[in-house]
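Dig into my protein:

:::
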Amino acid sequence: MIADKAYLIPNSVGEAIEMARINKDTFKYLAGGTDVMVNRFQGNEESSCLIDLTKIESLKGISKEGETLRIGALEILEDLKLNTFIKEEFPLLIEAALAVGSPLLRKTATLGGNLLCENRCLFYNQSEWWRESVGYCLKCEGDICIATQGKNACFSELVSDTAPALIAMDAQVELIDVDGITRIKVEDIYSGDGVYPRNLTDTAILTAIILPLNRAFRGSFHKLRERESLEFTSLTSAVAVDKNGKLKIALSGVDPKAIVVEGTVESDKAELIKQAVKGSRAVDNDMYSRKYRREMISVFLNRSFNKLNIL
């Protein structure tokens, strides 16, 4: 029986998926709540059933498994800096995690939740009264993108800060659904469609993040925002280089999905930057202009190449 309004607390992933299956089309998974609950307050999230995952112990913990480090999806962002493996092998992830929101939010927000945070747009992330007065957009059942005046595509932006860092270090995610367990690259989570931004079924649960050990990653992270201690990103860039000279760039904040460019330390850096800028579909739906954010891609990447001494 489907409840009119319910708050459910499963004790296992299997139980959570079964609850989701029963309440299909009416539920939302909840972890730290720093994204979901704000969207509910604004009227952008109205699911009648919330499934709270915080009691599921299998979604917590950090452990070495062979040549990989497994990080539970419910690990708190602020706590990542305390883990020895992460400090030694993946300091880029710590830098990204500590750039999310404010200190108070980071003590509640989870790593998995940040990867799956809802895409944002200046014309969508407003109060219900504001959206009704200006006109509903494609992301809230309207028939036009207010930012572009187009009717075919929503350009709400991926704003995860941890996603670029994890992508740059070739991280994967582990997913569990009704059909079993799968692993995919972090970048493959994102669809590029602003209305339906993730390539995941509704019932799937992101259980862990998997990072490759012994690659000796060196990294550089930058984030563009109006207020350093609070704002969602207008552009996040992460660049990582491993011991074999592989170079990987990942951006968020300038497209509905992550922008990914791969090369080596010997690659033409101007060409890598050109590919990153070309891949960005930023529109004027942010406090900073499209032109400025695209220009800052070059600035951030050049700074990263200088820091990593790979010019």
